[in-house]
Write a structure and sequence with these properties.
The complex is a heterodimer of chains A (543) and B (344).
Chain A (H helix, E strand, L loop, with lengths): L27 H4 L3 H5 L9 H17 L1 H10 L8 H11 L18 H7 L9 H13 L12 H19 L2 H15 L7 H20 L10 H14 L2 H16 L5 E6 L8 H9 L7 E8 L8 H15 L4 E7 L18 E7 L15 H11 L4 E7 L8 H19 L7 H18 L12 H10 L2 E4 L3 H14 L4 E6 L2 E6 L2 E11 L17
Parallel strand pairs in A: 1-2, 1-4, 2-3, 4-5
Antiparallel strand pairs in A: 5-9, 6-9, 7-8, 8-9
Chain B lengths: L1 H14 L2 H17 L8 H7 L13 E7 L6 E7 L24 E5 L12 H14 L2 E5 L11 H14 L14 E6 L1 H15 L6 E5 L10 H6 L7 H11 L28 E7 L5 H13 L4 E6 L13 H15 L3
Parallel strand pairs in B: 3-4, 3-5, 5-6, 6-7, 7-8
Antiparallel strand pairs in B: 1-2, 2-4
Classes of the chains: A alpha/beta (543), B alpha/beta (344).
Organism (chain B): Durio zibethinus
GO molecular function, one term (chain B): hydrolase activity
Subcellular location (chain B): Nucleus
Amino acid sequence: MVLCDFATSMGSSSGSSSSSSSKPLPSPQQQDIDGLLAGAGYKVRSSELLQVAQRLERLENAMGNSPADFSQLATDAIHYNPSDLGSWVDSLLSEFVQPSTCPSEVIMDPVPNQAVVSNAWTTAEPQNPQVHQNICYEQQSLNNQLTVVTATEEDSGIRLVHMLMTCADCVQRGDLSLATSLIDDMKGLLTRVNTVCGIGKVAGHFIDALSGRIYQGIGGGSVNGGSVLENEILYHHFYEACPYLKFAHFTANQAILEAFEGHDCVHVVDFNLMHGLQWPALIQALALRPDGPPLLRLTGIGPPSPDGRDSLREIGLRLAELARSVNIRFFFRGVAASRLEDVKPWMLRVNPKEAVAVNSIMQLHRLLGSEPTRNYPIETVLSWIRSLNPKIMTVVEQEANHNQPLFLDRFTEALYYYSTMFDSLEACTVQPEKALAEIYIQREIANVVSCEGSARVERHEPLAKWRTRLSAAGFKPLHLGSNAFKQASMLLTLFSAEGYSVEENEGCLTLGWHSRPLIAASAWHAVPDASAEFPAWDNQQSS
Amino acid sequence: MAGSNEVNLNESKRVVPLNTWVLISNFKLAYNLQRRPDGTFNRDLSEFLDRKVSANINPVDGVFSFDHVDGATGLLNRVYQPSSQNEAQWGIVDLEKPLSTTEIVPVIVFFHGGSFTHSSANSAIYDTFCRRLVSICKAVVVSVNYRRSPEHGYPCAYDDGWAALKWVKSRTWLQSGKDSKVYVYLAGDSSGGNIAHHVAVRAAEADVEVLGNILLHPMFGGQMRTESEKRLDGKYFVTLQDRDWYWRAYLPEGEDRDHPACNPFGPRGRSLEGLKFPKSLVVVAGLDLIQDWQLAYVTGLDKSGQKVKLLFLEKATIGFYFLPNNDHFYCLMEEIKNFVNSNC
């Protein structure tokens, strides 16, 4: 596979996140984080450094003393969130069961020369730049993350990107006449550039999207999402052509399987059933459970089908057949809703005795709005999800900042993000999967670039923002560990070309192309809410 | 055994700040878990544990970065540049213009360490280090994501280094100065230093100009056990056993440590006399167990009539440059800054 080289140059002058003076001050907890270790990717409180060091030391001694246990540790231990160094060391320590010592408390240090230990380190003055360093660390994870930039000898490619930026800037400033003339110029330039791959292909889509935005404003045509059937077909081909959705399904299923351990009645709520591609694997995995399969209920949410078909029911029937063939008691319910916010929790008929998994593959971002202060459907939906008291909520989202307030920032970010995604798609050779996958992505681009208000549903936000949002809504992370990572990596080598990479990000997993993460998978559970006595599903009138 | 272990740990604790000790001990522990006695490597665990960061086109502390994938090799290079004084230029990378038409801007091709096996160009520790290099030296840094052992042993790292050098030399947007050329230096720590040497040899033989080599406690060795190896084995984070493992993983099957890749001036090595080899800055940490090999390297260069400066940091351990919390770090940066700016 030859990577197509293309040039991009960036034009975001309104760096919304570039000035450190506009960043909020870190919380007191964050301020205590050792800034230098943060720069190395580790979060350790300065006040806990000595403790962590002592535990590292103890672990090292334990390893030295029993090499057999150590090699078992190396093969069997499952690791979580390596950024939290203290917890990581503790989890390894707890794997070492020393027969002579009491297994519970690992905090008390019986090392006789403890006094020597605490004095042995040369003291490091807290660095003045510590807080600043910390800001940078946070900032890096929230910023425009630049995608792969490849250089070409072709000047036209570079000029095309320059012009795209200028045009987007014109659109932002409202200078539509200059914007339209730039569109014409760019279309002309396109004829001289290879549009089969690389910058030519992506540029073409962005030019179309900009066109759509401009002519909408002037009273031209509207940019529509396709029909339900079209969307399903495109989605299916996107699923086949590249590993992003497979990774999403696979990672979510792993986490759900683990969360369902020990439960006899389980209920999965899928926020976007589509063809139910995610579920056969879970059904089969549940069938193979050592302690026997549970009773599985699946509630699939999806848009109402046009012309009398009931596609939700059709999918449900097919899944039921599969479940029957592997001897799982299975019940399906379809919930037809055009928008996720139209779904009421009582429609899901969740039983208080079931273990519930809520599964959202690229759906939550559709509930967001533009202004940070207004009330958008996301709040309501997250709140009723919590009221269901799910054992797990699996969330997969595009790892991109496509919901920024300024158009030019969104445009720039999207240009990088989708360039990278298209780059990765070059590795796919199967048709018509590849062509239709491209249309699928093109539709997303069109929505990000040319739609506004309620029509703009592709409001992707990065993992860091989702973490904040979900924490504020009362969810705590369930960390995805090294076993999930390893299996995701294996899946990639089986199904995909070189260049895809899985990364661990503080308990979440991302899949990207080369060093740019494009999609992020995380798992959550609800913090028990003391105030809720009667779950929302009992009240059929609830909103 | 336990007793001597405690002594070892106590010694390393005395010479580095607490957070440095935590960082490097953590690496030592993690790496121990990844190396298997049979010579295979748990790459999945390694990638899982490695802390990575994305590139960032928006300047952070005056430095921005972006990634490039070489179409021909599939190699990733991460480019770091000082941000423009003009804020309106932030977020813009112009691949059409040179770095400068009046001043010389050094371009440092950097090979990260990791004993040929660990880390990547996008590892947090190296991303941070390269950013500091850019800030302090006012240079452009290109960090090379070379293929690693044991999956890809000798000579892959050198091939990738050579490919990266050629790529850098041929970028018009990395040119500077009135002569419009790319002012290249090679640099690396540990295995990266070893790679820098071998790439420089290839460059010299191909008449490709490299202005200088910066070798930060470079990874060299040999069959014989030297005095420093025996004296410092296991004392400051590193053991002979792990060194041996990494050489076995990198060198071809059946080879020993006198292979010229490992021991360039050893019994199977060659003199570089007469070769147009770049001037070298070799930094040796006084508590590094392989310092005898590094000092032998310096002698070897000297005997070949090549220009070499030795910076011997007596109380430094390996990895002293990861955190800027010690004098050695600032001393090192000052030396590198002078080294790459001396031609201007």
